[in-house]
Amino acid sequence: MVALEIYRNTSIGRALTDALGEMVSSGKLDPLLALQVLLHFDESMGAALENLVTSRFIFKGNLRTYRYCDSVWTFNLRDVTLRNGDISQDIGKMKIVACDSSLLKPKVPPQQ
C-alpha cells in the first residue's frame, strides 16, 4: 500500500471507492478518470489534515505492538486515555499509522 492510500480506508474513502467502482462497472465512468479522482482524494485528504486541523490532544497508553514496513509505522496501544485541555476520555484501544511525509507525493497517471 502506498503511504498516501491510507485515507482510502476511512469511511469517506471507502464510500468514494465504492461509488467510483459502481460507476466504472456500469460504464458511466472511465477507469482512468476514477483513478485520477482517487489520487486527487488522497492528495486532498493529506493537505486538509495538514492545513485545516488545528486542535491537538495528548494520549497516554500501553504499547501493545508496533511494526515498521515500507516506511510506515503502525502502533497498537491499549488502556488509552485521550486528553484535550481539561477534557479527558478513556478509549481503551487505539491504532496509530504514521508515514514519512516525504513519501506523500502521488503519482498521477499521464493524461490522454
Task: State the secondary-structure class.
Answer: alpha+beta
Q: Quick check: average pLDDT?
A: 86
Find the count of extended strands (DSSP E, 2+ residues): 3
Q: Tell me the β content.
A: 25-35%
**Rg of Cα set:** 17 Å
First-last Cα distance: 26 Å
Tell me the strand order in the biggest sheet. Answer: 1-2-3
Low-confidence blocks of residues: none
User: Helical amount among residues, as a percent range?
Assistant: 25-40%
Description of the molecule:
This protein has helices at residues 11-25, 31-52, and strands spanning 58-69, 72-84, 87-99. Strands 1-2-3 form a 3-stranded antiparallel β-sheet, with no helix packed on it. The two termini are 26 Å apart. The mean pLDDT is 86. The longest helix has 22 residues, at 31-52. It is elongated, with a radius of gyration of 17 Å. A hairpin with a 2-residue loop joins strand 2 (72-84) and strand 3. The chain is of the alpha+beta class and 112 residues long. Helix 1 packs antiparallel against helix 2 (31-52).
Task: Give a quick precis of the structure.
The protein has two helices and three strands; from the N terminus they run ααβββ. The protein has helices at residues 11-25, 31-52, and strands spanning 58-69, 72-84, 87-99.
List the keywords.
112 residues, three-stranded antiparallel beta sheet, 2 helices, 33% helix
